[in-house]
Write a structure and sequence with these properties.
Oligomer: heterodimer
Number of helices of chain A: 17
Shape of chain A: globular
Strand content of chain B: 5-15%
CATH topology of the largest domain in chain B: Four Helix Bundle (Hemerythrin (Met), subunit A)
Radius of gyration of chain B: 28 Å
Helix content of chain B: 40-55%
Number of strands of chain A: 0
Distance between the termini of chain A: 39 Å
Distance between the termini of chain B: 57 Å
Largest sheet of chain B: 5 strands, antiparallel
Radius of gyration of chain A: 24 Å
Number of strands of chain B: 7
Structural class of chain A: mainly alpha
Order of helices and strands of chain A: HHHHHHHHHHHHHHHHH
Shape of chain B: elongated
Chain lengths: 442, 296
């Protein structure tokens, strides 16, 4: 985005503006998301407990209830216990919120619709998500209260344990896709819903449920919400918090719920692609274009798809929360170490072997990414060819039938494959476009 | 014109250093951990700035998200009082200053022995038009005849990209043979060899051209960005941290193994430091005069 903007305005302004636009959009995702999810949680909880939930504020369904809650929180006094460590106590909610917010930067909402399009997105998003635990631990420690301390300790033990199976279950679709770029992983699953990585093979199917369990645990939701277990620890790590600081914890919690649901959607549930490829032709026309109205419509529909799927997953989390009783800490650890870990190790092994021997999906071969995926590290690590050899090796573009379009329209043609790059690029691109798995490797 | 790379580098390094000092100066061990989080997080920012996104994410994942959580967790498990504080004696300060000072001297010497600290490549050098998915573009070349008419002192062919202002830096093709215009193939070859250009972009002949005709005004050259998006360009130092030294003539030669080993040694060193911190946080018990066990 900044590169497009910098054509029309000074570079510093373009970059600042691009950053601000992204930050503004993402902060709205979290804030509006939290508004909606808190209302939804009350409604879901009410229905499951055979009551109505909020009905009065803002009309028929009580849909302004969260706003009323927010106003109430704003007007509350910001208290701090006498024995607290002031600096850490004040910082903790912001750390939680910032970590949750930062992880959203890598999450793609549609093809290419991410603030930072990183080739290691899947890894980066886990790394950023892992920072959120600090807010909880520091809040627990700095409150100077035994309830909070116990909550913080439980959270630390739980998150450190669950990061391992969570990371492993993210690796399984990464192995299937052959890339950590979340946008590419998403685009590989386009087409019919049978192309979703959930249905790629039996191992990814199992992995999704392990991922969902571990994700629920890592965002500290029931039945894994031991850090705030209100029946034993008053309110756990946020016992001593009030007002706005308390609400930051909640924004972070609902933001993280949406975030891990989004990761699950991108990795397993077809990302922004609907179950039936209705807008596929539009997106196909638009590939390679700077702006294409069809591609724009397809992308907007993709955002709607993505958000819908993520909200469904969040709803499942709420459903689980109000249905299952809270686990004991030893049961939490047992779930992680005795069940999730072995299962995900098994599926990881299975998915690797499957990708090697049975390339492609169970039902249909997954679609290829739109653009040729180019492994730039390979060409960078190679010393440049001598000039004479580079000239020889340059393929005559007109001789190749696939380059007819290139001859007709040189500006919007396929990526250039020449210069020092041409020796490495065709092989790499071929490997990654022929099959998104290990099959083509010698 | 603000160089944002430098500004961000200064910002991140200032944060890193300030909070590193705060770690030493503080006496409360959980606050130390908090300062260390910020310091290590800003170091991760420096890695991102060096275009080594993977190393940066590793830094966040392992040190910030992994080891420091364990550190705070260890303190919570072992601490007896509500807030553990550590007092350091004068001797420890002197010892620490000697070790830290010699390490700083070594690092400074190493840092200043690096020839060039290049800023990040310009995001859009030579004013190339970005087309397609942002990876490619086409610029129009203005080939100029030898410049006797303009009074330029040398013979040669100036080839400018169309978007570039006349006063800006331009690539000069200066054929060895003399005053003839280069062919398009020669010119593309020259571009790909010129480090000012090939650091950022890859040039190719236009489709359907064999490049044997001399360059003329309005000729087109197809360009590809060498690094398609800003975060996946690995600058020299970022790659060197991963073990590859493209600046030293490619992988595979002896002695050009990059900084992976020092990097790993530093990480093992950090592990030792963390073990030490856990040991220090363990409160030593002594028996007070009235017979109760108290925490020291």
């Amino acid at each position: 985005m900044a590169e497009h903007l910098s054509l029309y305005m000074p570079e510093w302004l373009a970059y600042t503006l691009a950053a601000l636009v992204h930050a503004f959009l993402l902060i709205n995702v979290i804030a509006v998301g939290a508004l909606f999810f808190i209302w939804q949680e009350r409604k879901v909880c009410g229905r499951i407990q055979d009551r109505l939930g909020p009905t009065r504020v803002g009309g028929k369904f009580g849909w302004l209830q969260t706003l009323a809650d927010g106003v109430k929180l704003l007007s509350k006094e910001d208290t701090m216990p006498k024995g607290a460590d002031g600096l850490l106590f004040r910082m903790a909610p912001y750390i939680s919120f910032c970590a949750s917010f930062a992880a959203f930067m890598v999450l793609p909402f549609s093809s290419g619709y991410s603030a930072i399009g990183s080739t290691i997105g899947a890894f980066l998003i886990l790394a950023l998500l892992g920072l959120e635990v600090f807010g909880v631990i520091l809040a627990g420690y700095a409150s100077g209260s035994k309830w909070s301390l116990f909550g913080g300790m439980r959270e630390a033990a739980q998150v450190v344990s669950y990061e391992v199976p969570l990371g492993l279950s993210v690796i399984v679709p990464v192995v299937v896709a052959g890339t950590m770029d979340l946008t590419v992983i998403g685009d590989m699953q386009r087409g019919w819903f049978t192309n979703w990585f959930l249905f790629h093979d039996p191992f990814t199917f199992i992995t999704f449920w392990v991922f969902f369990t571990c994700a629920t645990a890592s965002v500290n939701r029931a039945p894994f919400d031991l850090a705030e277990a209100e029946s034993e620890l008053v309110a756990g790590f946020h016992t001593e918090y009030s007002g706005l600081r308390w609400s930051f914890f909640f924004m972070a919690e609902y933001g993280s719920m949406f975030l891990v649901s989004g990761i699950g959607v991108v990795l397993f549930l077809g990302a922004w692609h609907g179950p039936i490829p209705i807008l596929e032709p539009l997106a196909y026309q638009a590939r390679g274009e700077v702006f294409h109205w069809g591609g724009f419509i397809a992308n907007i529909a993709g955002v709607a798809n993505f958000i819908l799927k993520a909200v469904v997953l969040v709803t499942v989390m709420m459903w689980v929360r109000w249905t299952l009783p809270r686990l004991r800490i030893d049961q939490v650890m047992k779930t992680c170490l005795k069940y999730c870990m072995p299962i995900v190790c098994f599926t990881f092994l299975g998915a690797t072997i499957w990708s090697y021997f049975v390339p492609g999906g169970l039902f249909l071969k997954p679609a290829q990414p739109y653009g040729a995926v180019r492994d730039f590290s390979a060409e960078y690590l190679q010393p440049p060819l001598p000039a004479g050899r580079a000239a020889e090796a340059t393929p005559a573009p007109a001789a190749e039938p696939s380059h007819h379009a290139a001859a007709a329209d040189p500006v919007h043609a396929d990526p250039v494959q020449a210069g020092p790059a041409q020796a490495a690029v065709p092989q790499v691109a071929g490997r990654l476009t022929d099959a998104p798995s290990l099959e083509a490797r010698p | 014109m603000i160089n944002w790379h430098t500004v961000l580098f200064l910002l991140f390094s200032l944060v890193t250093c300030t909070f590193a000092v705060a770690v030493v100066a503080s006496s409360n061990i959980v606050r130390m951990a908090f300062y260390l989080i910020i310091s290590l997080g800003a170091t991760a920012g420096l890695f991102f700035l060096a275009d080594a996104a993977f190393v940066g994410a590793m830094q966040l994942m392992i040190y910030v998200g992994g080891t420091l959580v364990l550190l705070v967790f260890g303190v919570m498990l072992t601490a007896q009082g509500p807030f553990v504080s550590m007092r350091t004696s004068g001797g420890e300060w002197v010892l620490g200053a000697i070790v830290g000072g010699s390490l700083l001297a070594l690092l400074l010497q190493a840092a200043f022995s690096v020839d060039e600290w290049r800023a990040a490549p310009l995001p859009n050098p030579w004013g190339a038009t970005v087309a397609g998915n942002g990876l490619e573009g086409t610029v129009i070349v203005q080939a100029k005849q030898p410049h006797q008419a303009n009074g330029d002192p040398w013979d040669g062919t100036v080839i400018r990209f169309q978007n570039e202002p006349e006063s800006g830096e331009s690539l000069v093709f200066y054929p060895e043979g003399g005053k003839t215009l280069p062919t398009a193939a020669e010119w593309v070859e020259f571009l790909n060899q010129d480090p000012r250009f090939s650091e950022h972009l890859i040039a190719a002949l236009p489709a359907g051209s064999n490049g044997s005709a001399p360059v003329a005004d309005g000729d087109q050259v197809r360009l590809a960005r060498r690094y398609p998006r800003t975060d996946e360009r690995a600058s020299g130092i970022g790659l060197a941290l991963l073990g590859a030294r493209p600046d030293a003539g490619g992988a595979g030669r002896g002695g050009n193994v990059g900084y992976l080993l020092p990097f790993e040694i530093v990480s093992v060193h950090l592990l030792v430091v963390l073990v030490g911190a856990a040991y220090l946080a363990r409160t030593k018990k002594r028996v007070s005069s009235d017979g109760h066990t108290v925490a020291d």
